Amino acid sequence: MEPYIKCAECGPPPFFLCLQCFTRGFEYKKHQSDHTYEIMTSDFPVLDPSWTAQEEMALLEAVMDCGFGNWQDVANQMCTKTKEECEKHYMKHFINNPLFASTLLNLKQAEEAKTADTAIPFQSTDDPPRPTFDSLLSRDMAGYMPARADFIEEFDNYAEWDLRDIDFVEDDSDILHVMERRYPKEVQDLYETMRRFARIVGPVEHDKFIESHALEFELRREIKRLQEYRTAGITNFCSARTYDHLKKTREEERLKRTMLSEVLQYIQDSSACQQWLRRQADIDSGLSPSVPMASNSGRRSAPPLNLTGLPGTEKLNEKEKELCQMVRLVPGAYLEYKSALLNECNKQGGLRLAQARALIKIDVNKTRKIYDFLIREGYITKA
Q1: In what order do the strands lie in the sheet with 4-7?
Q2: Which residue among 22, 63, 67, 246 is buried most deeply as judged by most CB within 10 Å?
């Protein structure tokens, strides 16, 4: 702490003593008590009689720590001067001091004189040189890549930043799938396409958008149905109900003829075809079939498949086990075919036999039995 004693004969490094050690004649290594000495203190004025050298240094450190202009913080750090005193003293002796101003001016002039010989004068022109239009240099300057017909930097390079964090994962709940299936197939396709943008527009706006398109689809379908009534000459809803009933009957008859043609194309024996027709007629009339089905080419039917030890048997119920035994189909293959038919039925809202045959590339008779079994058990519905 000031004041303290500095030995004038020891050093370097300099040897310092506090006043208490100096008065006791403390000696250490080469230092002797009879050496000449200096009294070190900063308790003397430098620029202003009311400011000591120690306060000048504290002011400069406070301005460096707190920043120029924050005089209240500077005064709080110094603890010996007020805010007004700090500002007035700093502005008078460190900013507006003509001695410091002349020194800075001399430094600036010396720096300009040093760089005067190396500076290159610039003279502006009305039209600076530019590369010719559509030249290789002009393309490079514009960042244009002719091979890709595109620029290195797009016009709005950050336009897609709102979509960069979207994750496309199949984690929708069963409730969402049920909500999707209540729409017609066309609206379901739109729902699936627009679902990835739900995060941007918000859930309420997204639901309004889907509902509005569902309403538009219903209105278009009703308009088309009314136009069909008008084309058929129908003018009231009573006649329209009769028309719909007859149309449904005709459609069912057409489906029966289509199914019959699908069966007949696989039957080559004419006698077997006639027997099949008579047997179907007895079944439709509620009678037991009187004509047994003749086996093709006289071959014996294969025995039921033994499912013991086959993989996937434990996943089947009793009816499914019986089906696999009769059609001689291993459980693993049956489960795979069943999953494919269920997925397609959920997507289409129904499934036809022809679609099932297109999905399952096995014997058509086995496909028909699987298709009928799944419909009978309620796993899928007819389209």
Answers
A1: 16-17, 4-7, 37-40
A2: 63
> Which candidate, 170, 168, 180, places its Cα nearest to that of 210?
180
Mean pLDDT, residues 18-38 taken together: 81
Q: CA–CA separation, 272 vs 267, rounded Å?
A: 8
Tell me how crowded residue 19 is: count the other CB atoms within 10 A of its CB.
Answer: 13
Rg of the chain over all Cα atoms, to the nearest angstrom: 50
The DSSP annotation for 300-349 comes to: PPPPPPP-TT-TTGGGS-HHHHHHHHHHT--HHHHHHHHHHHHHHHHHHT
CB 227 within 8 A of CB 235: no
Please check whether residue 185 is in contact with residue 349, taking contact to mean a CB–CB distance below 8 angstroms: yes
6 phi, psi to nearest 5 deg:
-120, 125
Global confidence as pTM: 0.26
Task: Quote the Cα angle for 260-265-266, to 5°.
Answer: 105
Is-contact 60 68, C-beta < 8 A? Answer: no
CB 227: neighbour CB atoms within 10 A? 10
- Among 333, 353, 351, 330, CA closest to 342: 351
Q: What is the pLDDT of residues 238-266, one digit of tens each?
A: 888 888 888 888 888 887 777 666 565 54
Beta strands (DSSP E) in the chain are 4-7, 16-17, 37-40, 144-145, 150-151
Three-state SS for 40?
strand
CA dihedral (79, 82, 85, 90) positive or negative? positive
| Structure confidence by residue, pLDDT tens digits, 196-232 | 777 787 778 888 888 888 888 889 989 998 999 899 8
Whole-angstrom Cα distance, residue 377 to residue 383? 16
* 251, HSE (Cβ side, Cα atoms, 13 Å): 7
Q: How far apart are CA 117 and CA 57, in angstroms?
A: 40
Q: For residues 62 and 74, is the Cβ–Cβ distance under 8 A?
A: yes
* Half-sphere exposure in the Cβ direction for 169 (13 Å, CA): 6
CB 48: neighbour CB atoms within 10 A? 14
